[in-house]
Amino acid sequence: MFFFWDPLTPQPHDVDVKALLRLAVLYDVSIACNRSSADHIISSPLFTKPEKYRQDRASFVPLAK
């Protein structure tokens, strides 16, 4: 998801923006909020083959707390 915004300008829909970002994190969606992160996402080999990442994630076991 590419979501460019000006952090120095007050956002009239700040609650909606936070909800959008929260959903992206919940559903494991990559987020780019500036040009550098967008370039990094587009340059990734996973940009054209996201299913490979999904298969790798299926075998991921999180560390115990």
Explain what the structure shows.
This protein is mostly helical and 65 residues long. It contains 3 helices and no strands. The chain has helices spanning 14-26, 35-43, 50-58. The relative contact order is 0.14.
Instruction: For the record, give the distance between the C-alpha atoms at the N and C termini, rounded to a whole number.
Output: 30 Å
Instruction: Give the number of DSSP strands.
Output: 0
Describe the sheet with the most strands: none
Query: What structural class results from the helix and strand content?
Result: mainly alpha
Average pLDDT works out at 79
Please write out the topology:
Blueprint: H1 14-26, H2 35-43, H3 50-58
Task: Please summarize what this structure is.
This protein is mostly helical. The chain has three helices and no strands.
Descriptive keywords:
mainly alpha, 3 helices, 65 residues, flat
